[in-house]
Each structure stands twice: as C-alpha cells, then as structure tokens.
Write a structure and sequence with these properties.
five-stranded antiparallel sheet; 8 helices; 275 residues
Length: 275
C-alpha cells in the first residue's frame, strides 16, 4: 500500500497520523524509503519504512460510510469474552496490533462489558482506554467533530449493545429453564408410575403366596399322639408319614401269629383227648 504526502493514516497503537513527507535514508549501508508521520494525539514524529508498511499495519483512515458501519458494530449486542484471563488478553492484544478499527471496536465492547461485572487488571484497563481513545480520535478527525461529542456517541452505542446483550442472555436462560422443566415431567409420567405399579404387584404376589402354602401346618393339631409298636410316641414331620405309621401299628397288633407260640406238649394232650 502506498501513501501520499498529506494522507491521514492510522498507525496501530499510536492512532491517527498525517504523512508529512517521504524521504530516503541510508542506514548501515542500506538505502530505503521512510514515511514521516506526525501523530495527532501527541504531536510526535514516527518514521515507518516503506517496505514495512504491511508488517506494521499502517492503513488509511476510514471514510464517512465506514463510520456508520462502525457505530452499527458497536451497538449490535455481539460480545465475545474468554473466561480465561490469559486467552482473553492474548486475543485482544492481537486485535489491537492489526490496526483495524473494527477489531479495536471488538476489544472496546468486550472489555467495557466485562468491567461492569468485575474489576479489570491494570493491563486490561490500559488496553480499554487505549482502544477507546484510538476510535474517538479517528472518528472525530474523519467527521470533523469534537472528541467529546464523538465519545458521547460511542457511549450511547455501547449502552445499546449491552442492553441487547443482556436481553439475549435472559431469553436464552428462560428457554433453557422451560426445556429443563418440561423434559423431566414427561419422563417421570411415562416411566416412573409403571415401574412403581409393577413393583407393588410383585410385592403383593410375593407376600400372599407364602400365606397359601402355609395352610398344611394343620397337621400339627392332632389331638392324641400316634403310638408305634414300642409304645413310644411316633415322631411325624409330615402328615402323610404320620398316617402311614398308624396303619402299620394296627397290623402289628393282629392276634393271628399268637397260635404259633403254643407249646408242643399242650398240643399233643389236646390231640389225645380228642381221640
């Protein structure tokens, strides 16, 4: 990019400057051209090598149409902030080095919005003041207005930006609450009652089935003990076994086997009398 004498240019981190002259200088045996810039903010002179214009980010000042775009950007409500201090400071420093007034506007919005909720560090506070001063000086020179008037316009645009930002945050939070409140209700009504009912039924079935199977205990209510062949009470653990024991006891009490025990002498006498 080339500039002519009298052009208004922006030197990153220095602000608005005016090209007063272009001359060649020989330094360490090397001859190169330099732009002599007079910085408007502090009335100092800066030499910028012609070959290094793109490297330092030297650019022309914005025009009237770009001023309207700038104020639209300042009030659009779009603010990006890093939660990590190091990451935020690095991104803002890179934007300030580009020399773009739109990048400086992003830095101004993010740091001003952040300053409303917490205290800025010394380095971020200095960066905020620097971004605001560079924007105001460039716009006031382009629009040929006093710096105080331009600062008021910038402040109004920032307030509009913050109002829009807060409104968007509240809407997002409200939608998240509605989504969180509706999803658990549908899941609970669809699944929890079914699980609870099934659990109750299983519990009732488990509680009633043993009551039915406990009825055979009536066998323990026999009025008199069952006697076995030795005259001792028979131990019966199951009703069916006890009943079988009674039957075998009656069979043992049969008198028929007693005839076989008659002595042989008595039998022979009975036979003689009969004859």
């Amino acid at each position: 990019m080339t500039f002519q004498v009298g052009d208004k240019v922006i030197y990153p981190n220095h602000g608005l400057g005016i090209v007063e002259r272009i001359e060649e200088k020989t330094i360490l045996g090397t001859t190169c051209g330099f732009f002599h810039l007079r910085i408007v903010a502090n009335d100092t002179t800066v030499l910028v090598p012609v070959a290094n214009v793109d490297g330092v980010g030297l650019r022309k000042a914005i025009d009237d149409a770009e001023v309207d775009r700038l104020f639209t950007l300042l009030g659009d409500g779009k603010i990006d902030n890093h939660q990590n201090w190091k990451g935020r400071f690095k991104d803002n420093s890179d934007k300030m080095r580009t020399g773009s007034i739109y990048d400086m506007a992003d830095v101004l919005k993010s740091l001003t919005f952040l300053s409303k909720s917490k205290s800025l560090s010394f380095r971020e506070k200095r960066m905020l003041d620097r971004a605001k001063a560079l924007i105001i000086s460039e716009v006031s020179e382009v629009m040929r207005q006093k710096a105080l008037e331009v600062e008021e316009q910038v402040d109004r645009a920032l307030e509009k930006c913050f109002t829009t930002k807060v409104r968007n945050i509240n809407r997002t939070q409200a939608r998240a609450k509605v989504a969180t409140a509706t999803k658990p209700v549908s899941v609970a009504t669809a699944t929890k009652p079914v699980v609870a009912t099934a659990t109750v039924k299983v519990a009732v079935a488990t509680a009633t089935k043993p009551a039915v199977t406990a009825k055979p205990v009536v066998a323990a209510s026999v009025k008199s003990p069952v006697m076995n062949g030795n005259g001792k009470p028979a131990v019966a653990t199951k009703p069916v076994v006890a009943a079988k024991t009674v039957v075998t006891a009656k069979t043992v009490m049969s008198a028929k086997p007693m005839k076989a025990t008659v002595p042989p002498l008595v039998a022979s006498r009975r036979t003689a009398r009969a004859s």
